[in-house]
Amino acid sequence: MRNSLRCSSELRILLVLTFCVSAAAQNVYLKGKVQLTQDGRHERDASKVVVWLTPLGATPTPPPPRQQTSQIPQLVQRDKSFHPSLLAIPAGGQVEFPNHDPFFHNVFSLFDGKRFDLGLYESGSTQFVTFDKPGISFIFCNIHPQMSAVVIALNTPYYAISDQRGDISLSNVIPGHYRMHIFHPSVSPSALQAAEREITVSSTTTFIGTFVLPKSSLEIAHKNKYGRDYDRPEPDSPAYARP
Prior knowledge:
The protein is mainly beta. It is built from two helices and 17 strands.
């Protein structure tokens, strides 16, 4: 009886392992190409385009990868800029905001996505923010209006950011039906929406297409965290002083 139960248990384990290996073997590696244009001319730098897939219908929805402590990305404040200016992370993940400038910063986001205000914090210090739900967060500094960045928190494991050549790679995608979303900080929302499409991924799919995105020449102005225009600080303002 014990031998029969053990054999039955081993058979179930073997079937589960076989199914997992078979499913993994069916998952596909997708590539795509992005081209950025401005005034009808192709841009040499086609980086910072985010592409992600959300399952439709009966297509399985795997959870986004869990972020490890050692994998927390940084948006470094240096030379009155954020480095890098764009991050894509799994929903529920964290981002670190270290201040490497010799003066204070006040990082905030009070628009779509995650809403937070880190307040004034000095050179050499750092802050962490958890992006606990999917969304696009536009991030600014309340002292320096030229500083801006974007953090995209995604509830899908299928996302990638284009490199300078515009190449996109999405790995381990389960065959099925998806909505493909695209984002670039310099492309208008209407153009981004027009670029969205539904795609079907099969075991033989390798290329999801080439996408041409027109960059907008209009700079989007933003208010400070109080909803007012930025003040012009004096050179000896405490906001610029070394702590």
